[in-house]
Amino acid sequence: MASTRSPFTEITEREHALASADLKTVGWKPALSASQARQDAIAGLIASTVSSSIACKEGCWYCCYLKVEVRAEEVFQIVEVVRTKFRPTQQQRLQDQAAENAKTLQGLSREQQLTANLKCPLLEDGKCSVYAVRPARCRTLHAKDAAGCKKGWEEPDNLSIPHTLVPALLYTAEAHLQGSRLAFAEAGFDSRVYELNAALAMALKDSTAKRRYEKHKRAFVELPCKA
Ligand code: SF4
What we know:
Blueprint: H1 7-25, H2 28-47, E1 69-71, H3 72-85, H4 88-106, H5 110-114, E2 123-124, E3 127-128, H6 136-140, H7 146-154, H8 167-186, E4 193-195, H9 196-205, H10 208-214
Antiparallel strand pairs: 1-4, 2-3
Helix pairs in contact: 1-2, 1-8, 2-8, 3-9, 4-9
């Protein structure tokens, strides 16, 4: 008999099961990396079936001016790369820029935050400096035409600019994300959603945030979040 479950549910349940198994056997860091690899693999598979090709490529950065929502484990994964690969001056610059962006965003309404057009502090020379460990949200956006992304960046307040994001890629990425997030939540980890700049600045400044996370407590106690 054919399954009555939607593809969304099937993807969510599959990712939930796989991430839960990894969390039990290998711990949160490899579990996160494996989940990211699966997200990229699904995206690659779907992209190969889309009639017109995906315009996203290295050096295209318009979407790196959008507000990014992250989970705590994604932030600690980025911080680990920053601590091992970035020079001390680069680390300080990143922390300062993230804190400055976070301060700017705090003074804005939710709607204003969506059109603030702030450069992600991890964007360097037009490229993501932590590409391999970029957050799931950054892996979600795939456009068929960069012209719309460019126009959106040039006119951030103009919400009527049509985008060319691929619906199937958005749909599967969201389903994947829900499965992964649920697995981490069930394993006892902080599954709140934070804003990238604020969480990154805090994680770089305060090493106790990661310890709290690993003890299954709220990672960023002072930051606003979505449950
Ligand atoms: S983390 Fe990387 S991909 Fe995501 S917005 Fe920042 S620079 Fe862009």
